[in-house]
Specification:
With 170 residues, the protein is mostly helical. It has a domain at 12-119. The chain is 88% helix and 4% strand. It is built from 2 helices and 2 strands. A two-stranded antiparallel sheet has the order 1-2. Helix 1 crosses helix 2 (149-165). It is rod-shaped and about 190 Å long.
């Protein structure tokens, strides 16, 4: 039965439709909207936790990075110190080797000078002997006779003493 009153008509169907709509809204809210709302809230909380975890992980990573950079700097400083120490030791070894070489060359020069001096003395002594024998021979020729050994020796010693005082010139 329908009753028409102007533009809007009122019937029991309309009343049942409103009740059905309310029941449908209630059921949808209970079984669809609330679980979806709860799921979205859980997802929101999970995302917030992930963001917080990421921020914390980032801060930890920054701390680790700073720590590693500090360690790298310390290692570089230690390496520089080791290199400086090695260079100083190499310089010391170099100076020591050079000094040893100079000492050895000085020893060689000293020994060579001693050898030269010894050879010069030997040559002078040999030359004195030769000069003495030539002087005796010259004296014998000048005097024309043979002298005795004692007189020869006196003359030679006197001649050598006088000749030893005179510097030889080239």
């Amino acid at each position: 039965m329908e009753v028409y009153t102007g533009l809007v008509s009122f019937s029991w169907n309309f009343f049942f439709q409103i009740i059905n709509t309310l029941i449908l809204v209630f059921l949808l809210t209970k079984f669809l909207f609330n679980p979806v709302k709860n799921m979205l809230e859980k997802r929101k909380n999970q995302i917030a936790d992930d963001v917080n975890g990421a921020a914390e992980a980032k801060s930890q990573a920054e701390a680790l990075r700073a720590d590693y950079e500090k360690k790298i700097k310390e290692i570089r400083m230690e390496a520089d110190a080791i290199l400086k120490d090695a260079k100083a030791k190499a310089d010391d070894n170099s100076k020591k080797i050079i000094q040893e070489a100079r000492d050895k060359s000085d020893d060689i020069i000293e020994k060579a000078q001693a050898e030269i001096d010894r050879n010069a003395r030997n040559a002078r002594n040999e030359l004195k002997g030769d000069v003495a024998s030539m002087a005796v021979m010259a004296a014998e020729k000048i005097i024309g006779e043979k002298m005795d050994d004692e007189l020869n020796e006196k003359l030679v010693v006197k001649f050598i003493e006088e000749a030893g005082d005179v510097k030889w010139q080239n």
